[in-house]
Amino acid sequence: MRNDSQLKRLVIIGLFIAMEIILTRFCSISTPIVRIGFGFLPVAMLSILYGPIWAGIAYALGDILGMMIFPSGPYFPGFTLTAFLTGITFGLLLYKKPITWKRAFIAAFIVCGVWNLLLDTYWIYILTGKGIIALLPARLIKVAFAIPTQTILIPLVWNKCLKKIK
Which GO molecular function entries does the Swiss-Prot or TrEMBL record give (predicted)? Predict the structure, then answer.
């Protein structure tokens, strides 16, 4: 019985990694300094189902696989670190807890405001050499849209669509 549940977990994680890659690589708007998309949703759902470690590992793997299969520039490990931290953050705030708007807002604020805005901006600065101040306006606009989007979609998708698979 234990092997069946481990196999089920691996299959679900694999499906969510594939969904993350598709949503990030094909269903997003990308510029050299901003990517707007829905790749966060599979990671948030994984974090609710399996916790921070599995979500962090899955998002990091999704980042690496996505770059290997569909490269959009040189691979940079900083973005993989951000992906891992995003999964960890969602997991710490959403795993084994009620999925409420408030909890989703806190998770979205940390992910978007800290990891995406600060850490990713630093990675882009390292890659492009552009001044951080020059990068911030577009990235602030992205965060202004991403936080409410994540705050609304995470509880909506979980509570209306996926809660029953748990």
Answer: transmembrane transporter activity
- Single pTM value for the model: 0.91
C-beta separation of 131 from 97 below 8 A: no
The per-residue b/e assignment along 20-52, b for 16 or more CB within 10 angstroms, e otherwise, is: bbbbbbeeeeeeebbbebbbbbbbbbbbbbbbb
Tokens found for residue 99: 């999925």
φ/ψ of residue 30, rounded to 5: -125, 135
Q: What is the CATH number of the domain that holds 70?
A: 1.10.1760.20
Which residues form the domain of 149? 2-165
35-82: per-residue pLDDT in tens?
A: 788 999 999 999 999 999 999 999 999 999 999 999 988 899 999 999
